[in-house]
Amino acid sequence: MTNSRVFIIGTAVITTAIGCVIASCVPVESQDDGPGSSPRTQAEFDEMFNELNNWGRWGDDDEQGTFNLITPEKSRAAAGLVERGVSVSLSHNPMTEDAADNSSSFEHVMADNLRSDTYRFTYHGYAVSHIDALCHFEHNGMLYNGVPTSASSPDGCGKLGIENLKSGIVTRGILLDIPRLKGVSYLEPSTPIYTSDIEAWEAQAGITVSAGDAVFLRTGRWARRAALGPWQLSGNSAGIHASVVRWLKERDVAFFGSDTASDVQPSLVEGVNLPVHTLLIAGLGMNLFDNVDLEALAETAAEENRWEFMLTAGPIPVTGGTGSPLNALAVF
Questions:
Q1: Which of 73, 198, 228, 332 has its CA 20 to 30 A from that of 79?
Q2: Which letter, b or e, does each residue of 135-158 get, where b requires 16 or more Cβ atoms within 10 Å of its Cβ?
Q3: What CATH number is given for 12-331 in this structure?
Q4: Strand bridging mode 214-218 / 169-177
Q5: Which of 264, 303, 216, 289 is nearest to 17 (CA)?
Q6: Residue 100 Cα to chain centre, angstroms
């Protein structure tokens, strides 16, 4: 994401069905916490950051944040969710043409004589499915766990780089299909999602988010794009309101992601552009999945009539990297 609170922008150079069927959806009128939900101002945001952050929770030298919540027992339980062995990709294929939501197109050059190719792309932004490292966002000059931004340089992040997820992610994944909850194919840009929406979805889907889960929010971004064409998501996308971070902390969620950038934009927090990114990454120490494609997942989950699955994901372990493109998989 491009934002005044982003410390480093990453560039990757590597060598080498629509979800909700309206007739089957049950419309639910959510009782929104409302636009008046805190935080509303920079001061309230700072207070919330200081209250909720996980600095020191897993030790002063911790670089894994909420990844610590995925225990061996949690991973074994996630493996037990596999019943039919059906896997679904959560990655959108790289886009090769410039568009309103893709300012840096994916480049693929193949050397015929060597039968090899080169990929070049900038993955932070609103086009490439990727995961953010804990050194990607800062708050008041500090990264997660009190690491100063001076620990990073043009050579990369001195601490909190994406290599800390090299062992890979295996846990229970949960899909929050908010368009299905509301009986629509997709949410309109700038639609805020509140804790009450998420809990209404839990009740309808018969699931409860628990410690160590990876939670994925479907806004229907890719369905809307297919129907109406691309639009500029920066400053104009559906997502969670910053108040939801308190709920994510209470539930001990390990990872969060969405088909956009997670934050509702505009943010509804005066003076703070991407408060969810800042609170989760720099505060809670939670890696975020951005721009994942949840359309096939939503369709499969509806067919299976269950919105929990085994999630597996592994980033490219670039030492000091601010994140990584990746292909996360949901297995039913």
A1: 198
A2: bbbbbeebbbbebebeebeeebbb
A3: 3.50.30.50
A4: parallel
A5: 303
A6: 20
Pairing of strands 329-331, 130-132: unpaired
The domain locations on the chain are 12-331
Beta bridge partners of 177: 218
pLDDT computed for residue 35 by the predictor: 67
Average pLDDT for consecutive 10-residue bins of the chain (332 residues)?
Answer: 36 34 35 75 98 98 98 98 98 94 90 86 94 98 98 96 98 98 98 98 98 98 98 97 98 98 97 98 98 98 98 98 98 98
268 neighbors 245 (Cβ within 8 angstroms): no
Whether 33 contacts 243, CB under 8 Å: yes
The number of residues making up the chain comes to 332
Residue 47's CB is within 10 A of a number of other CB atoms, namely 13
Rounded CA gap, 93 and 186, in Å? Answer: 20
Residue 43 contacts by C-beta under 8 Å, 6 or more apart in sequence?
none
Can you give the chain as a three-state secondary structure string? CCCCCECCCCCEEEECCCCCCHHHCCCCCCCCCCCCCCCCCHHHHHHHHHHHCCCCCCCCCCCCHHHHHCCHHHHHHHHCCCCCCCEEECCCCCCCCCECCECCCCEEEEECCCCEEEEEECCCCCCCCEEECCCCECECCECHHHCEHHHEECCEECCCCHHHHCCCEEEEEEEEEHHHHHCCCCCCCCCEECHHHHHHHHHHHCCCCCCCCEEEEECCHHHHHHHHCCCCCCCCECEECCCHHHHHHHCCCCEEEECCCCECECCCCCCCCCHHHHHHHHHHCCCEEECCCCHHHHHHHHHHCCCEEEEEECCCCCCCCCEEECCCEEEC
Q: What are the backbone angles phi and psi of residue 121, rounded to the nearest 5°?
A: -165, 155
